[in-house]
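Figure 6 in text form: structure in, sequence out.
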């Protein structure tokens, strides 16, 4: 259970984020537990197009003690659902500064994500793999009920993309069928024309033979 100090501080930080949001960063606390926050980082560079969902789990003693930091979306930089070793996480309480906030923690994570410095919880992948993860990230996130509840605008955005994709696939499928039907009709007419011409030729030969006999 959150202490009065942690509750007051985290509510204040949420209000500050609502008033002055960080670029490419969104974060909200769970309604049922103010000590658990969920965030989304919008990718840049090789992460362009990615939406990276994660969570911060604060101790009841916050801000005197640091939170645990997790990344939940497959991303190619960090392991998923594992505590990350960062200077502002609970892996390093000795470096924690109580003046740091949700905003500064996520800004630090965002910056570190765009580096290649290894740490406990980081992984090594190619740029191509990172781009593949980025392209699939919103689809992946929308499988998570907490993500959908915390970030309904992004969930709706993904639903619109999925609907458009389905419509495009249906249209492409219809075009393919139409094209196939057109080709099939052309083939039928070609065969029919061939047999008509062949029949006429045979009939002409027969008529010539009859006339010759007469």
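Output sequence:
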């Amino acid at each position: 259970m959150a202490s009065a100090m942690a509750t007051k501080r985290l509510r204040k930080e949420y209000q500050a984020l609502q008033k002055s949001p960080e670029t490419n960063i969104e974060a909200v606390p769970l309604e049922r537990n103010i000590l658990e926050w969920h965030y989304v980082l919008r990718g840049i560079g090789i992460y362009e197009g990615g939406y990276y969902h994660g969570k911060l789990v604060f101790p009841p003693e916050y801000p005197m003690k640091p939170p645990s930091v997790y990344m939940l979306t497959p991303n190619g930089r960090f392991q998923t659902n594992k505590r990350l070793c960062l200077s502002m996480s609970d892996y390093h309480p000795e470096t924690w500064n109580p003046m740091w906030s949700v905003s500064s923690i996520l800004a630090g994570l965002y910056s570190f994500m765009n580096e290649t410095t290894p740490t406990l919880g980081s992984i090594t992948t190619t740029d191509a793999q990172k781009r593949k993860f980025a392209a699939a990230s919103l689809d992946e996130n929308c499988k998570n009920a907490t993500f959908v509840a915390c970030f309904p605008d992004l969930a709706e955005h993904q639903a619109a993309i999925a609907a458009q994709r389905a419509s495009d696939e249906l249209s492409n499928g219809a075009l393919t069928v139409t094209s196939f039907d057109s080709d099939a009709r052309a083939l039928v007419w070609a065969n029919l024309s061939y047999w008509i011409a062949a029949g006429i030729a045979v009939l002409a030969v027969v008529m010539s033979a009859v006339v010759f006999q007469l």
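Caption detail: Helices lie at 4-19, 102-113, 127-141, 145-150, 152-213.
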